[in-house]
Design goal:
Elements: E1 2-9, H1 13-23, E2 33-41, H2 48-54, E3 60-62, H3 65-69, E4 76-79, H4 86-95, E5 99-102, H5 110-122, E6 128-130, H6 138-148, E7 155-164, H7 180-183, H8 188-202, E8 205-215, E9 220-222, E10 228-230, E11 236-245, E12 250-259, E13 267-275, E14 278-283, E15 289-294, E16 303-306, H9 325-342, H10 355-374, E17 378-379
Parallel strand pairs: 1-2, 1-4, 2-3, 4-5, 5-6, 7-12
Antiparallel strand pairs: 7-13, 8-11, 8-17, 9-10, 11-12, 13-14, 14-15, 15-16
């Protein structure tokens, strides 16, 4: 079995999730490649204690990402840092020859995403992907299989979103995601949008234009020092798009919604696909079920299908058992390493976000900002799909 030695840059929540997934690699009996974490980097050295207590393989602890990238033992890196650092650190990793899985949105704005894309073009031997766990739930895989089989017929409408309510508490202290200089003008779109875009983009459903309704609900929050600080980024975004199915050139409406202030939602992904032959919908509120309806004439009836542990990459967990978020993280990492090893994902919807898909999300979010300012429909620059 091939071992890929990893460094982690950004040791917070998602860094720990990756490390935990690496520790569970024995759950994937058919994999012929595995990760080994040998180095970590973060400006907050207090975070190192958890890694030291759980991973004897880690031999380098540093607060300087350049030192980690200079480590010749490291083959690949996972980077989870604020958006304003993406262009600098992602590009440095690629130039250092390290394979990269980076957090979304792959640059604080379209300009920075272009810097990363140009760097990828100059280093074609470096494997680069963007993080998004949403397609790796078994129910989403089932919808992906339906798309591959063209089971929906002509697409009538698609609705996709990621909603959570952690900011419903207006007394919650401000953090970097509410600050323009760290999170960027996209606001919730940059933070949450790739999760809502991943499945539609992979399906080849490309937005042509957008009318965006963006909301900054909370004007200020406690600054943690007894005062108040302005919240500068968009809390909620609803994007109304005219999309085209690349296989057929047929057009249909598509809605992409991202919200930080969503009453009744803890952390909800959803996808709804309506077609002339079949329809399907899924929400992580009912994470292990998928609703489907096939239409052959006459009465229409939704059926609810219980999903077991029917993952893209085989697990030792019995198929009758249910899957959860930590399983989707493990599957995403399996997808990254499988494609690194074999040159392509095991199936169409079992791959991580590509640089082209990340670039398309920037084109969409940039157009959405312009739409909000103008109060009108704005065309989306889809030429980015041909750049990489």
């Amino acid at each position: 079995m091939r071992t890929v030695k990893f460094g982690i840059i950004g040791c917070g929540l998602m860094g720990r999730e990756f490390a935990s997934a690496a520790a569970r690699w024995c759950h994937l009996p058919d994999m012929d490649v595995r990760p080994e974490i040998i180095a970590v980097c973060d400006m907050n050295e207090k975070l190192f204690e958890w890694y030291k207590g759980n991973f004897s393989s880690i031999r380098q602890f540093t607060d300087n990402y350049k030192e980690l990238l200079a480590n010749d033992e490291i083959h690949a890196v996972y980077i989870a840092v604020p958006h304003n650092l993406h262009a600098e650190i992602y590009s440095a990793a690629i130039m250092a020859g390290k394979h990269l899985l980076g957090e979304k949105p792959f640059g604080i704005d379209k300009k920075d995403n272009g810097i990363i894309s140009e760097c990828i073009q100059k280093h074609p031997n470096v494997f680069v992907r963007c993080s998004s766990e949403s397609p790796f739930f078994p129910a989403m895989q089932r919808i992906g299989h339906m798309i591959e089989k063209k089971a929906f017929g002509r697409i009538l409408e698609v609705n996709s979103g990621f909603l959570h309510s952690s900011d419903m508490d207006f007394s919650k202290a401000i953090n970097w995601k509410r600050m323009l200089k760290f999170n960027g003008e996209y606001g919730c779109m940059g933070d949450l949008g790739m999760h809502a875009c991943h499945m539609p983009f992979r399906a080849g459903w490309i937005p042509k234009n957008v009318r965006a309704i963006l909301s900054n609900v909370v004007g200020e929050r406690p600054n943690g020092k007894g005062g108040m600080a302005p919240c500068e980024t968009w809390d909620n975004a609803t994007l109304f798009c005219e999309a085209v199915e690349t296989d057929t050139d047929k057009e249909f409406p598509m809605t992409i919604k991202t919200q930080r202030i969503a009453p009744g939602h803890k952390n909800t992904w959803y996808l709804e696909v309506l077609g002339t032959k079949a329809s399907a919908r899924w929400s992580s509120k009912q994470i292990n079920t998928v609703e489907m309806m096939e239409y052959t004439g006459g009465e229409q009836s939704w059926q609810v299908l219980d999903m077991g542990h029917e993952t893209a990459y085989k697990s030792i967990t019995g198929g009758i058992f249910e899957a959860g978020f930590s399983d989707s993280i493990l599957q995403m990492w399996a997808a990254f390493l499988y494609e690194l090893q074999h040159g392509k994902p095991i199936s169409r919807f079992a791959g991580c976000v590509t640089p082209q898909e990340a670039a398309l999300s920037h084109a969409l979010f940039t157009a959405a900002l312009e739409s909000q300012k103008k109060g009108s429909v704005v065309e989306i620059d889809t030429s980015v799909l041909k750049m990489l």
